[in-house]
Amino acid sequence: GQQLNQSPQSMFIQEGEDVSMNCTSSSIFNTWLWYKQDPGEGPVLLIALYKAGELTSNGRLTAQFGITRKDSFLNISASIPSDVGIYFCAGQLLQGGSEKLVFGKGTKLTVNP
Amino acid sequence: GAVVSQHPSRVICKSGTSVKIECRSLDFQATTMFWYRQFPKQSLMLMATSNEGSKATYEQGVEKDKFLINHASLTLSTLTVTSAHPEDSSFYICSARQGFEQYFGPGTRLTVT
Known about the structure:
heterodimer, A: six-stranded mixed β-sheet, B: seven-stranded mixed β-sheet, four-stranded antiparallel β-sheet
C-alpha cells in the first residue's frame, strides 16, 4: 500500500530557530496536506497543496508540493513555544472510488524557550 | 468555519458493552466523513469512509460488524464499537471532507476495562 516517509521523527530546537521537515513517497498524490496535532486533540489543518510545484505560506509556515507529486516539505520560521506538537503530512489520493488520506508517521517538535 | 465536533471526548466502558461515538460537522454539510484510529505515539489509521445515505466503506482488516457506522444526515456520522474489548481501547478521530480538504474532530478517548 501507499506509504509516506516523514522525517525527521523528532526535533529539539531553540526558540527563534527555523525548522524544516519533509515527506516522501513512491506514490503520486493529488493533494498534499500538513496537519499539527496537540496531545489529546485532533489534527488541525495547517496548509493544503494542490498543484505540483506549488509553494504556499500561512504565516510563519511555508510548504511546497514537489514537482513529481511524490514529496513535500514544511518550514516553520522563527519558532515559538506554541509550535510544540506533532506535525503530520498527509497525501490524498483516489482509491476505490473515494478520496483517502495517507498519513506520515509524524514529526514531534520540541521548542526550548 | 469548517468545525467538526465529537462526542463524547472520553468514555470508559466495560468489556462486552457497546459504545457510540458521534461526529458532527457544525458549520458545513459533509457527504463524506472518515473514521480513524490512533494508538499512542503512532499515526492515524483510516478505519472507514462514511458516506451519507449509503453503506460505509471499510479498510482492509477492519471488522464492519464490530465497528458500525451510520451516516444518517449531512452533518452527523456515528461509530458504534460493539462488544468492546480492552484491545479496542484507543483514540478515535473523525474527519469531514469539505472540498478537497479534511477537517478533524477533537477525538474520543475510549478505554475498555
